Amino acid sequence: MNSLKKITADSAAVLLLCTTLFGACGEKTPVAAPAQFSERFCLDENFKAGLHAITVAESPILESIPLIGKIESNPDQVVHFISLVSGVVTKTYFSLGEEVKQGQLLAEIISPELNALEAERKSLEAGILVSRRHLSALQSMFDDKIASEKDYLEAESQLKSQIAELEKLKANLLLFQAVPEKGVFQVLAPSTGVVISKNVTGGMHIVADDTPLFTIANLRTVWAMVNVYAGNLAQVENGLEANIRTVSYPGEVFQGTISNLSQVFDDEEKVVKGRIVLQNEKLRLKPGMVVDVRVSRERGEQAISLPVSALIFDKDHYHVLVWNDDCDLEVREVGLLYKDNELAYIQSGLKLGERILSTNHLLVYEQIKNHNKS
């Protein structure tokens, strides 16, 4: 009897405990599941406006060959002014590096020789006038059988000689214009271009020799002369496209083609010189400027190509961001076949037609990494 009462009391205590803790031991109270992160990373609409994606495609593999070059003026467009007479320069009207027009006044000089040449020109013109009249008279006399053919031919030859001498004299005086009221001769620009050297100043005595007083070059077209070392001779040839960059214009590429590759090896510099003709309408490329040149040639293969800027290098591997949709951006590791400063050729990790982010991808990559850590 006492045992039965004890069991009943214990059962009542258990029932009271169940009622206190759970309300009722016979009911199943739902227990919340552990919290789990289930949201995917999605692009914000405002941020997405600044993104750009490119579609993966194949292209011929272009092997890039780095070269060093220097900008030079085109020798066929350079004029060296050499004085044909002696005298004193009274004033100059141009500076080194200045652009001048053909016929523009550059300097004024006083020269006894030019005075003598002017006098000789006037004398020749007068003599030619007399010789023309004499030849005309002999022509009539020859037609009337009064003058001999010998006299006529001699007069004709003398006139031709005088005309040739006058033309030569005029050519020498072409760049000098007499200004009698000032007692000087003016030196006019022989061509349009930029003054790339100047060896004359006001008050300077000049002589008739081979020393150029100044040099004018038309820089609308310039040459990039590149050094091709022996190790690159097998890869470089005429007709290859070239991209030229300078520190003066970062990010800008000047394009040209190797138009001439010298057949003579320079023993002093240990290079072969290659010529690239460049259009220079804005005169930004200056003679003497050192340039970085990259020549491209096809390797005869094709592969998936991407701008190098679209790659993400992290943890010793290259990755790209594949953009399937706004809430499905995949960080994909890729294997490289070849890359240069501009293009990367992909060996593995991408398929044709896939889209990858090419702008702001580093920022998106960091956001995805931070999101996955949350």
How do the helices and strands line up, and which of them pair or pack?
Blueprint: H1 2-22, H2 45-48, E1 53-55, E2 57-73, E3 78-81, E4 87-92, E5 99-100, E6 105-110, H3 112-143, H4 149-173, E7 176-179, E8 184-188, E9 193-198, E10 205-206, E11 214-217, E12 221-229, E13 241-245, E14 254-261, E15 271-279, E16 290-307, E17 312-314, E18 317-325, E19 328-339, E20 343-348, E21 355-357, H5 361-373
Antiparallel strand pairs: 1-21, 2-12, 2-16, 3-11, 4-6, 4-10, 5-9, 6-8, 7-8, 9-11, 12-15, 13-14, 13-16, 14-15, 16-20, 17-18, 18-19, 19-20
Description:
With 374 residues, the protein is of the alpha+beta class. The longest helix is centred in the middle third of the chain and has 32 residues, at 112-143. It has 3 domains: 45-56 and 311-373, Beta Barrel (conserved putative lor/sdh protein from methanococcus maripaludis s2 fold); 66-74 and 218-300, Efflux pump adaptor protein, beta barrel domain (Elongation Factor Tu (Ef-tu), domain 3, Beta Barrel), CATH 2.40.30.170; 78-217, RNA polymerase II/Efflux pump adaptor protein, barrel-sandwich hybrid domain (OB fold (Dihydrolipoamide Acetyltransferase, E2P)). It has 5 helices and 21 strands. The radius of gyration is 44 Å and the shape is elongated. The strands form 4 sheets. It has a 6-stranded antiparallel beta barrel. A 5-stranded antiparallel β-sheet has the order 7-8-6-4-10. Strands 3-11-9-5 form a 4-stranded antiparallel β-sheet, with no helix packed on it.
